[in-house]
Amino acid sequence: MATLAPMTDADRERVGTAVARAEGSSAGEIVTILAERSDRYADVALAWSAAVGLAALLALLLLPDFYLGLYERLTGGWVHEWTPRQVFGLAALVVTLKFGGMWLLMLWQPLRLFLAPNPVCHTRVRARAVACFRIGAERRTRDRTGILIYLSLAERRAEIVADEAIAAKVPAEVWGDAMHAMLAELKAGRLADGLAAAVERVGAVLAEHFPRADDDRNELPDRLIEI
After folding, report:
1. CA atoms within 13 A on the CB side of 111
2. What is the pTM of this model?
3. Which residue, of 107, 145, 152, 157, has the fewest CB within 10 Å?
4. pLDDT of residue 221
5. Which run of H or E residues covers position 32?
């Protein structure tokens, strides 16, 4: 995927215009949210750090003579019989150093995201999208026709969440066309165009199932929300 350039004011205006145009032919209310990331994945960093510490302990258990000899050579100590306390102390030191070193490495967010399993990323992005939808769009329109297009940059994932009236009429797989249209633009590095393309496809579906009424009014903001 090409590098995505930061959003400019012109980009934000283009997305807002796309939303207003899409809503002009339907009763749907489209909300767009652009998130820097959906989670900090602190538990992923903790899990990897613990795994590395346990792996070091396992290596010490499987090859004790090698590691005890290595420790003696590094510290310049005389060869001697190890007491249980010394062995346990060395094991604790090794686990602590390995755990701490991995934790420091995992402070680098790109590595943390790289090591986060795909199902975990998918679940976190979906959960954040649903949370944002509940705050900003769910049941905030008269006819329950709000819909959220959520894009999380760090995870490079997107979600579409619809209010109950839309979900009752439109199967979730229908939004796949909007997702593909957005992905095609994002792969080319065109962030604003990707969001606008998704808005256009969503608007077309809404216009088919929820045509705009004469008394329809704008109930949710058209502007792009960045978090």
Report:
1. 11
2. 0.81
3. 107
4. 78
5. strand 29-35
